[in-house]
Design brief:
By secondary structure, this protein is mostly helical. Helices cover 74% and strands 0% of the residues. It is built from 13 helices and no strands. The chain is globular, with a radius of gyration of 20 Å.
Length: 319
């Protein structure tokens, strides 16, 4: 099988695994804190065993990024237990709106005029989630508080993305400073995965005071928890790490849209959960705006790369 085709299938499978998180989190009798802690603890072990990059690049920088990622993980679980899976994943997907504020401050990246327009669209989509009131149901008993936690999860994810870019720009804080070529790429991949692994460890430890005692739970609950840690996070990240070696950023981002598209469908199929009308509209606006932004950024990056080679920019497909 050609490598690009294999990579697309790997990334699609990873997105499929990611998309099952909301339904699985709602399916167990554990408390939200217990789900968050156990899921991350098992995921950390899985990542350390399955992903070689998670075992190298452990620095204070990777740990600092791990703190932001831990917040993303925990808030995602807490939000899922209070509001619908659709609201949680869509609100978390509003992270580019916060990146617009954080990138100039933390990374000294320029903000283009088109970014302001697209992020205004994300802001409109975000506001739609808080129009009117959603009726509490068994799987979403407190939609307002859950929506706020999901939005905070998006903020934490924005900090995580900034942190991963920071690791990339600074060589991951490894001895010797920035390197070039395959060595730099290998070290960054290691430090990035170390941040993911450390984030899961931090999330697990941070949840323990609120998760104990665990109480008595059946085999079904434990099976779902193991699935969340090993497959929904561990195996999914292994597939993402492998796939991104072959795929362009825009193509990868499009394939990963499988996650927010399928997440509400799993929750509907397993729990009969139906998101509100305004939430669905807001989710479509957010995903549409972020997709357009990714496409424009990828095109601009390619044009810059082609111009830097000393020739004219060639007209060619983005993906």
């Amino acid at each position: 099988m050609p490598s690009p085709t294999k990579s697309r299938l790997e990334l699609a499978l990873a997105a499929l695994l990611f998309s099952t998180g909301g339904a699985a989190i709602k399916a167990v009798a554990f408390t939200a804190w217990q789900v968050a802690g156990l899921r991350s603890g098992i995921a950390a072990l899985a990542l350390l065993l399955l992903v070689p990059g998670a075992r190298r690049g452990w620095t204070w920088r990777a740990a600092l990024v791990g703190i932001a990622y831990a917040g993303t993980l925990v808030l995602f679980v807490l939000a899922n237990r209070l509001t619908t899976s659709a609201n949680t994943i869509f609100l978390q997907s509003s992270a580019p709106l916060y990146l617009l504020v954080l990138s100039p401050w933390l990374l000294h990246e320029r903000v283009e005029r088109r970014d302001l327009v697209l992020m205004a669209a994300v802001g409109v989509g975000l506001a739609l989630f808080f129009i009117g009131s959603e009726r509490p149901v068994a799987t979403a008993p407190d939609p307002v508080r859950g929506n706020l936690l999901a939005a905070l999860s998006g903020v934490a994810w924005a900090f995580t993305v900034c942190g991963l870019r920071w690791l990339s720009a600074g060589g991951g804080g490894l001895p010797g400073g920035r390197k070039s070529g395959q060595d730099a790429e290998r070290e960054y991949r290691g430090s990035a995965m170390a941040a993911v692994a450390s984030g899961n460890i931090i999330a697990c430890v941070g949840c323990l005071p609120f998760a104990l005692p665990l109480g008595t739970h059946g085999a079904r609950d434990w099976t779902v928890i193991v699935y969340l840690g090993v497959f929904q996070i561990g195996l999914a990240y292994l597939l993402v790490t492998s796939a991104l070696r072959q795929l362009a950023a825009f193509e990868a981002s499009i394939i990963l849209l499988i996650e927010p598209a399928l997440n509400p469908l799993w929750a509907w199929a397993v729990h009969g959960e139906v998101p509100g009308r305004w939430a669905l509209v807001g989710g479509v606006v957010i995903l549409g705006a972020t997709t357009v932004k990714t496409w424009l950024d990828t095109r601009a990056e390619r044009q810059t790369r082609e111009t830097g080679r000393g020739g004219k920019v060639r007209a060619e497909p983005i993906a």
